[in-house]
Design goal:
Residues 956-1066 form the Beta-adaptin appendage C-terminal subdomain domain. 52% of the residues lie in helices and 9% in strands. By secondary structure, the protein is of the alpha+beta class.
């Protein structure tokens, strides 16, 4: 790709032209080098020719471009025949990329993929683990029933592979095969059982996912692997952690007794304080023995606690639900801080977390009370987040904080978001019903809202007041009179119906007003909503029964109108009321009780949280979010009354090849070593029985040997490669053994050391391994001197063997990394990720002046956050102000005039903006990495105003987090035409780190790259549209000069940014 062609395509301003220019090759004629007139067909023909070439370099280049097309979301399926021919290529790089392509398209092109199935089968024996894994992925992607036996055989072989990466892919293939042919379930369960014994952290998450998909009810498969999974959990990949935690939550609910019994017992003791001694004695006799937590139960709770600090929100949520469902109530509180931390994440994460907090806060208010201010609503929150925060604030409300919350609610009622304002009024009503001390205060506040100019606020207030008055109707006659006067101004049907219902219920308390209201309603009956008509009929019936002198004729008139209404519900209600209140020869016995029926005391409504009935779903699941049982949801079982036998989790002790390890001529004494992952022994306090302790420590040692066929093969096949390593390790072990033998301590001393060792353990698997060996050695020291010599040698052998296994696993990981390094598809680094922007003061730009907009003023700014409307769009916040004394209605955007390729996501129309009102809305514009102007019309109900937004070049970037090494690597690839530089002259005080940082980030939205040199400052970003890197370097020279260097493929943007940065860095 030539630099000139790239620059030209950028200046042309079209995104498509840029892409075509990037994909042009040297084989295209100079006239078509820019790719402006080349068609997709011609490009693909070019790629086909390259794939059929005899040169591996041409094939590799073609495959890189094809995979690049897939990464951009382009369809490359028509190249399948040309690509699949190269599946047998001897070049390892080409083969890797071919398999990447085949995994993507094998399911779509099944017939063509089947032709190469023999090649895939041969690839399963390839020396490279990535090729073996890729071949298995392609096989499992060909979803044709005829190859099920081949897939089954391939999965069985892969499950015993030496590489953990291949075994991981075997676990993934199990789920695909099961969805294709469920009849293979029993054979797949055998493979799952084998893979569950695997000690590699790379495999654990994948095989548990396969277990959850294929046989979630086979809890017996987990028993032997429970402790191992608990100890491996902290080292498993993040998404594997989520799956394992959910599975272990279900397991714990079936295998352990409820830890909440202890808390229940404490509550009973508090209640018994006021009871007589005899009653208390009877209850004490009936109590069961005190609760003692199973050590395995404690192991799970303890090993998941560190994951509350995870950067992955799903992991934190999974641990939180585990603590909520299986830990003692006294320990659940630790999850609250971690959940509140997640509220700083994006809005989707906030929504899920707040839903779960809302459910928790109903039962456990105290957990989240210290973080009350974290749930205050921000103006930038979307409506769904605002309403969830309101729900939580309502749940947390009590006598101590209600005054603070009510002041907060007063602000929320004034919000421009009508749905949120209405929800706030409902919240005030719920607080009034829950806390009797503030009922009158809330009621008077709601009455004040009846004079609000916003009709929706008034309507919602009426509905809530109606519910509150039902609780104490006799005390509020004045409020009812005031609401009756509002009937002339309120138009919302629900509010009008609520007022009529209140007047009808209290018609005897307002005898003068009620008939007059009925008279007014009779006039407008035909124009009313159906809901209001039904309440007018009810009001007429109640007044007929209590004040027939004044209202008899009026009620008959209304009944006649209802008799011929278009709605059949109203006609039916009319006939029913007429027969009930106007007695005649056809009337039944019910007419005698008409007054009791209509004027009976109604029960006050119960204002409950909508999250009250969600607690029967497991927290953090889709079913909990939707409040309905989703497909695939696995319910949590109730705690068993009696705990199942805990010995099922004990692992049998298997001797470590006694003939090899035991010195010749000495008898082997049976003394079981401690478990490989020994954290499970930490919780064995002095109160636990010694028999439990012995059974656990004794049974756990066998886990080192139960690695399965794959790990045995691994140790045998790899022994020759690592002989030198094992010899060096054994020498170290001999030295440690000699040192340990020189000690002459008693049994009590060794026990004290063991306890100290257990306290100092960490969650890291390597430290766990070493501590378990030390514990086993301390056991051996407690024997006599003669026995300790032979035992210490045996323990050293065990340590050498376990350490040897760890070295093999480490070497496998190194091989995997080396293989993955070959998959370098483009110039972008795999460790590059979007970073949070550096805070800078917001720069506001005028979009529409109030004089030009006839009172409507608009300003915009760039919040420097990823746009929620699209990955390629720049986020823009627009603040609209009404500076007039009248309401501005229907503010919206139309008449977009955008350059080719640019796109715009507009804000939803604003129904009305009150006088002196202000509202901030969000929109997104895809500027196609150019500073071209986006022109459009900002319209109201009466006028349209031409406005435009031109972005500063620095706002077309997103900050990137990367290391100094990656920065230098990327910079080395972006030289020549992709590099622009200039010399800056300024005073030395302008070249301090803080000044340079402030000036650069003010101009451009870039991330700071750590630098190991004091005179060089580096910044990195990527363009929003294309994701091209933008690398900025400020290198200080001698004296008062510095060199500013910008490396990027987007040379036009780079040169513009250089021009903007130079004067800023130069000035004082």
């Amino acid at each position: 790709m030539s630099g000139n062609s790239f620059a030209y395509s950028e200046q042309a301003g079209g995104g498509e032209a840029t892409e075509l220019g990037q994909e042009a090759t040297s084989t295209v004629s100079p006239s078509g080098a820019f790719g402006l007139f080349s068609s997709d067909l011609k490009k693909n023909e070019d790629l086909k020719q390259m794939l059929e070439s005899n040169k591996d370099s041409a094939k590799l280049d073609a495959m890189k471009r094809i995979v690049g097309m897939i990464a951009k979301g382009k369809n490359a399926s028509e190249l399948f025949p040309a690509v699949v021919k190269n599946v047998a290529s001897k070049n390892i790089e080409i083969k890797k990329l071919v398999y990447v392509y085949l995994v993507r398209y094998a399911e779509e092109q099944q017939d063509l993929a089947l032709l190469s199935i023999s090649t895939f089968q041969r690839a399963l024996k390839d020396p490279n683990q990535l090729i073996r894994a890729s071949a298995l992925r392609v096989l499992s992607s060909i979803r044709v029933p005829i190859i099920v036996p081949i897939m089954m055989l391939a999965i069985k072989e892969a499950s015993a592979d030496l590489s953990p990466y291949v075994r991981k892919n075997a676990a993934h293939a199990i789920q695909k095969l099961y969805s294709l042919d469920p009849e293979q379930k029993e054979m797949l369960i055998e493979v799952i059982e084998k893979l569950l014994k695997d000690k590699s952290t790379l495999v654990a998450g994948s095989v548990v996912m396969a277990f959850e998909e294929v046989c979630p009810d086979r809890i017996d498969l987990i028993h032997k692997n429970y402790r191992k999974l608990c100890n491996l959990l902290v080292d498993v990949e993040e998404w594997g952690q989520v799956v394992i935690i959910h599975m272990l939550t279900r397991y714990a609910r079936t295998q352990f007794v409820s830890p909440w019994k202890e808390d229940d017992g404490l509550e009973d003791n508090e209640k018994n304080f006021y009871e007589s001694d005899d009653e208390q004695k009877e209850k004490t006799d009936q109590k069961k023995k005190p609760y003692a937590m199973d050590p395995d139960h404690r192991l799970l709770i303890r090993n998941t606690k560190p994951l509350l600090q995870s950067r992955n929100a799903a992991v934190v949520m999974a641990v939180a639900q585990l603590y909520w469902h299986i830990s003692p109530k006294s320990e659940v509180g630790i999850i609250s801080k971690s959940l509140v931390r997640l509220l700083r994440s994006n809005r989707e994460v906030q929504y899920i977390v707040l839903q779960n907090i809302a459910t928790m806060s109903i039962q456990r208010k105290g957990m989240f009370e210290p973080y009350l201010k974290s749930f205050y609503v921000r103006s930038t929150d979307p409506t769904m987040i605002k309403i969830l925060k309101l729900e939580i604030l309502t749940n947390l409300a009590n006598e101590a904080n209600i005054s603070t919350l009510l002041r907060e609610f007063q602000t929320y009622v004034k919000s421009q978001d009508k749905q949120f304002a209405a929800a706030t009024i409902q919240t005030i009503g719920r607080c009034a019903t829950n806390i009797s001390e503030v009922t009158d205060t809330c009621l008077s506040g709601l009455v004040c809202l009846l004079s609000n100019r916003d009709e929706i606020v008034v309507a919602e207030s009426v509905v809530v007041i109606k519910k509150l008055l039902q609780m104490q109707p006799a005390q509020h006659g004045e409020i009812i009179k005031h609401m009756a006067k509002l009937l002339d101004s309120i138009t919302v049907p629900v509010a009008r119906a609520s007022i009529l219902w209140l007047i009808g219920e209290n018609c005897e308390r307002v005898p003068k007003i009620a008939p007059d209201v009925l008279r007014k309603m009779a006039k407008s009956f035909t124009n009313e909503d159906d809901l209001v008509k039904l309440q007018i009929l009810n009001l007429g019936a109640k007044l007929y029964l209590t004040n027939s002198k004044q209202t008899k004729l009026l009620t008959q008139y209304i009944l006649n109108l209802g008799k011929y209404d278009q709605n059949y519900d109203i006609r039916d209600r009319t006939r029913f009321i007429r027969q009930l209140i106007v007695p005649n020869e056809k009337s039944g016995a019910l007419s005698k009780y008409a007054k009791k029926i209509f004027l009976a005391q109604k029960p006050a409504p119960l204002l409950e949280s909508p999250f009250k009935d969600r607690d029967h779903f497991q927290l953090g699941t889709l079913s909990h979010t939707l409040n309905t049982k989703a497909i695939g949801y696995l319910e949590l079982s109730n705690w068993p009354e009696v705990a199942p036998d805990p010995s099922v989790r004990n692992v049998e002790v298997i001797e470590l090849q006694a003939k090899e390890w035991t010195p010749a001529g000495k008898a082997k004494k049976e003394n079981p070593a401690k478990k490989f992952y020994s954290d499970s022994e930490e919780e064995e306090d002095s109160s636990d029985s010694s028999s439990d302790s012995e059974s656990e420590s004794g049974s756990a040692s066998g886990e080192q040997d139960e690695e399965g066929d794959s790990s045995e093969d691994s140790s045998e096949d790899s022994s020759s490669e690592h002989r030198s390593d094992s010899e060096s390790v054994s020498e170290v072990g001999d030295k440690r053994t000699a040192k340990r033998n020189s000690k002459s301590k008693g049994k009590s001393d060794s026990e004290d050391e063991e306890k100290e060792n257990e306290k100092s353990k960490t969650s890291d698997s390597s430290s766990t391994d070493s501590s378990s060996v030390e514990e086993s050695s301390s056991d051996s020291e407690s024997e006599s001197e003669s026995e300790s010599e032979s035992e210490s040698k045996k323990v050293t052998m065990v340590r050498d063997y376990s350490f040897f296994q760890l070295r093999i696993n480490t070497f496998e990981k190194v091989l995997l990394i080396a293989d993955l390094e070959g998959l370098n598809l483009s110039t972008s680094s795999s460790v590059i990720s979007v970073n949070t922007p550096v805070f800078v003061p917001v720069k506001t730009h005028v979009l529409l002046h109030r004089m030009s907009g006839r009172g409507l003023a608009a300003h915009y700014f760039f919040p420097r956050q990823p746009c929620i409307f699209g990955d390629k769009m720049v986020s823009i916040q627009i603040t609209l102000n009404n500076t007039t004394d009248r309401k501005i209605e229907n503010i919206h955007i139309e008449g977009k005039k955008l350059p080719m390729g640019m796109q715009m996501h507009v804000f939803n129309p604003i129904e009305s903006l009150e006088p002196e009102g202000s509202i901030t809305v969000s929109m997104g514009i895809d500027f196609c990495d150019s500073t071209q102007t986006a022109s459009f019309q900002l319209c109201t109900k009466d006028d349209c105003f031409n406005v435009n937004i031109q972005p500063p070049v620095g706002e077309l970037l997103l900050p990137v987090a990367m290391s100094e090494k990656d920065f230098k690597k990327e910079q080395g690839m972006l030289t020549g035409m992709n590099e622009t530089s200039t010399v800056i002259i300024a005073a030395p005080q302008n070249f301090t780190p803080s000044v340079i940082l402030q000036k650069v980030v003010n101009i451009a939205n870039v991330g700071v790259v750590p630098s190991g040199q004091d005179n060089i400052y580096r910044f990195a970003a990527k363009t929003v549209h294309s994701g091209s890197l933008m690398l900025v370097t400020v290198e200080l020279k001698e004296g008062s000069t510095a060199q500013l260097i910008i490396n990027t493929e987007r040379t036009v943007i780079g040169s513009v940014l250089l021009r903007e940065l130079k004067p800023v860095l130069s000035q004082g």
